[in-house]
Amino acid sequence: MSNKLYLITTNDKKFEEWAKQNKKRLKGAALEHFNAGYIDMINGNYLARASFVCYWEIYNNNSLAKIAPAITQASFIHMMHRFMERGQQDEVIVTQQLMSNFLRLLQALNQEPSERDSNEEE
Prior knowledge:
Largest sheet: none
Strand content: under 5%
Number of domains: 2
Structural class: mainly alpha
């Protein structure tokens, strides 16, 4: 799967084919969002295009959506360790804050709005 995503991201022809398939699948607001982002991604740099491709793959794939938060958190941990190795303490602190806030936000998404409101009142 990761090699497929990499090829879609780095190969213009594969990116175009992938985009056509997505445009057929998407409807309404999702299609509008895809088209708006797609215009910027035609000539986007690797990281921007890879993020766009991964977002839409997660959007369309429940299995991938289930594992994506863990991959994101693991990416933060990897970044933090690399910053530690370089002695970049400010970046370590920022990465730790990102990790904490990411988990907090995931927990908020997993709560029903009524649960969230009652927790805020306590």
